[in-house]
Amino acid sequence: MTEEIKKPANPVGRPTKYKEEYCEMLIDHMAQGLSYESFAAIAKVDRDTLYNWEKLHPKFSDTKRLAFAESQLFWEKAGLTGMFMGGKENPFNATIWVFNMKNRFNWVDKKEVTNENKNIEIKIDDDDSKL
């Protein structure tokens, strides 16, 4: 007589804390200008769990991209409001706003250009008499 071995119905390990409703909650969260990483506190998980959910749940990954667009919209509107309506009581600090945008959305002042595997010869004429 052979024994039949039953496999567990669920994969080994802890059950996921992921819920479909987190997608809409993430959009609402980031539309307020809050960060993706701070959503971990709302879901009561750590940041690594959010990153894992992106890999395991395509809808959550798509939602993250949309939520970042909502967050950028929030911050661009905040910048416009500050620039045009801050007044003396609430002066706009462009430096802080620009640094915020650089950190959140990878804004840059310039693009770095690299020259790989190409030789460029630059000749500098130090003869001031030609000026």
Describe, in plain words, how this protein is organized in 3D.
The chain is mostly helical. The protein has a domain at 22-106. Helix content is 49%, strand content 0%. The protein has helices spanning 22-30, 39-43, 47-56, 58-85, 94-105. α3 (47-56) packs across α4 (58-85). The longest helix has 28 residues, at 58-85. It is flat. The termini are far apart. The model has no long low-confidence stretch (mean pLDDT 82).
Query: Regions with pLDDT < 50 over 5+ consecutive residues?
Result: none
Largest sheet: none
SS class: mainly alpha
Give Rg in angstroms. 26 Å
Strand content: under 5%
* Number of helical regions: 5
The shape, in one word, is: flat
Order of helices and strands: HHHHH
- Give the proportion of residues in helices: 40-55%
Span of the ends, CA to CA: 103 Å
Tell how many strands the DSSP assignment holds: 0
Instruction: Report the mean per-residue pLDDT as an integer.
Output: 82
In short:
The chain is mostly helical. The protein has helices at residues 22-30, 39-43, 47-56, 58-85, 94-105.
What attributes characterize this protein structure?
single chain; about 0% strand; mainly alpha; about 130 residues; flat
